[in-house]
Write a structure and sequence with these properties.
The complex is a heterodimer of chains A (about 80) and B (about 450). With about 80 residues, chain A is mostly helical. Chain A is about 55% helix and about 0% strand. In chain A, helix 1 crosses helix 2 (about 35-50) and helix 1 crosses helix 4 (about 70-80). Chain A starts with 5 loop residues before the first helix and ends with a helix. With about 450 residues, chain B is of the alpha/beta class. Helices cover about 35% and strands about 20% of the residues of chain B. Chain B is built from 16 helices and 16 strands. Chain B has helices at about 35-40, 55-60, 70-85, 115-130, 150-165, 185-190, 205-210, 220-235, 250-255, 255-270, 300-315, 380-385, 405, 410-420, 425-430, 430-445; strands at about 5, 10-15, 20-25, 30, 65, 90-95, 135-140, 170-175, 195-200, 240-250, 275-280, 340, 345-350, 365-370, 375-380, 445-450. In chain B, helix 5 (about 150-165) packs parallel to helix 6. The chains are: A mainly alpha (about 80), B alpha/beta (about 450).
């Protein structure tokens, strides 16, 4: 049973991003975040820890995580599958 | 008038069976393409924009093609300057010079010197005052064996991570450890405070390793490290740590390297979080190595690398890909905001020169400044400029597609002695880079552009 609603997930994700120096505004959710490789890894580590999920490479390989919405969608799916 | 596009001069082309890959050494992107794109880009002629209209934007975005008039050299130097002087802090911290191993080739003295609580507090004050000024913090842990001061590491890293979170500055950390004390609980504690990347050296099978890298008092060096690695692989829920397992090869363990890799394959399966790297044991300095001079490999490095690559490829383990990175041959010493904090709080540019390695000129003890009790750092920029200097490429290197990886970087100390820059391609061989590219591909670190054949 999942306790997180979509607003909570979004808020927690925004906090994770801002802690890593990435500030995302609502009208930029579909834009390329231009994250460097270290920030990318640190964000994914935090997402796994905060939401207690495991992110398989199928979700991030081949440049699949580009925008904030990509991260949001992936996190939502993985929480539902948890 | 339509814009004309050409293949980037920094594209490296790799093909095997029906796999066609292009690695752009400037954008550092590995691209899988179909045969048509591969063939046309390899020709380095003008690109038919109509034919590839669907892929054009992506090819351009990842740097595989550029406008005909675009000056890629200028862009490369722009990126180089940006990176050397970027507002990131790269520090190596040596919490102790003591070590629980006595590796036969080690150049260090293993003096039992440890970071005091006062120095630890000074480092934390330094981080508190300085983290907000930077875009990113990279902390490397080195020794001696850093995990002999595990508590200090955790305190410093916890402080760094909390300050980073508060001021929105990412903090990443790596550690060079012998792995003996890296049990699963320690690994988990370190992961929580941000240590995600490790280098551990295992010198082959049990007998070889225990002979070359013995524990100071016990005979379980190999068993303990393997147990730790197995537990981390099986129990860690984190998908994004990376442990590079390095092997230093000499005459005594070279011939058994394949058996070692087979054993590791059985132990780790296809765990992508572990990568393999090798180096040849040579005289890195100090007195210890004199006892094993007759065991140093005499073959050419490129021949050695080719043999190792064949074995790695046959077994199918992942290899370390740091050699593919932009300025991959530049260590933290070469960055304007890079320095080492020693156990006693003294500041140095290079973490190795301190130990008087034979390979380095130790004229000025590479002292770079002072870490004051208040936590402020005073850097001698005149000394710093020696390390950040750029070298103009030799004429023959100007059109080499590996230039962004090499960028005429070499250790400033060895450059001072040799008066020449080492060619990364000759040093490592084509097969070396092919192997890394294939490993990155197998790991899924690539982008596919265009329809499959």
């Amino acid at each position: 049973m999942c306790n997180e609603n979509s607003l909570t997930i979004e808020k927690k994700l925004l906090d994770i991003f801002s802690a890593q120096g990435i500030f995302v505004f609502e009208d930029e959710y579909d834009q390329d975040l231009a994250i460097d490789s270290i920030q990318f890894v640190l964000i994914l580590v935090e997402i796994e820890q905060v939401f207690s999920i495991k992110i398989e490479d199928v979700y991030y390989a081949n440049n699949r995580l580009v925008s904030f919405n990509d991260f949001l969608e992936m996190t939502t799916i993985l929480i539902e599958e948890r | 008038m339509d814009t004309k596009y050409v293949s980037s001069k920094f594209n490296y082309f790799f093909e095997e069976n029906s796999l066609f890959l292009i690695y752009n050494t400037l954008s550092q992107k590995l691209i899988k393409v179909n045969f048509d794109i591969y063939k046309d880009l390899k020709k380095h002629s003008m690109l038919d924009t109509q034919k590839y209209s669907n892929s054009l934007n992506e090819l351009k975005h990842f740097g595989v093609i550029c406008e005909e008039s675009f000056d890629e050299d200028n862009y490369m130097y722009h990126m180089l300057n940006k990176q050397i002087f970027r507002n990131d802090l790269n520090i190596t911290i040596i919490p102790t010079t003591s070590c629980n191993f006595r590796c036969v080739y080690c150049f260090e003295n293993h003096d039992a010197l440890f970071m005091s609580k006062e120095t630890e507090d000074r480092v934390i004050r330094f981080l508190r005052k300085n983290i907000p000024k930077y875009n990113c913090i990279n902390i490397d842990w080195f020794g001696g064996e850093p995990l002999l001061k595990k508590d200090s590491i955790i305190r410093i890293m916890t402080a760094a991570k909390n300050i980073g979170n508060k001021f929105s500055v990412p903090v990443s950390s790596r550690m060079t450890t012998n792995g003996y004390l890296l049990d699963f609980q320690t690994f988990t504690e370190l992961q929580k405070c941000g240590v995600l990347f490790y280098q551990i050296t295992i010198d082959g099978m049990r007998e070889d390793h225990n002979k070359l890298r013995p524990h100071i008092t016990r005979n379980d060096s190999f068993e303990k490290i393997i147990k730790n690695i197995k537990e981390i692989s099986q129990n860690s829920q984190c998908s994004f740590f990376k442990i590079t397992l390095r092997t230093n090869l000499s005459a005594s363990n070279y011939w058994n390297y394949k058996n070692y890799l087979l054993m590791m394959k059985e132990l780790l399966g296809n765990d992508k979080r572990f990568e393999f790297d090798v180096e040849i044991v040579c005289d890195w300095g100090g007195d210890n190595v004199k006892g094993i001079y007759d065991e140093l490999l005499s073959m050419q490095r490129s021949d050695f690398i080719d043999n190792i690559i064949k074995i790695q490829k046959e077994i199918g383990l992942f290899v370390d890909n740091s050699n593919l990175k932009f300025q991959g041959s530049r260590c933290q010493t070469g960055y304007a905001n890079g320095f080492t904090i020693n156990y006693d709080g003294s500041l140095h540019k290079c973490s190795l020169v301190e130990f008087g390695s034979n390979h380095y000129n130790n004229k000025n003890n590479n002292s770079i400044g002072e870490l004051l009790h208040s936590g402020e750092v005073v850097i001698n920029e005149a000394v710093n400029s020696f390390y950040t200097q750029l070298h103009t490429p030799y004429e023959k290197c100007r059109n080499c597609c590996w230039l962004p990886v090499c960028l005429m970087n070499t250790c400033p100390y060895s450059l001072e002695e040799d008066k020449r820059v080492r060619c990364v391609l000759k040093y490592n061989s084509h097969n070396f880079y092919n192997r890394i590219i294939l490993s990155a591909f197998n790991k899924g670190d690539y982008i596919e552009i265009g329809d499959a054949n």
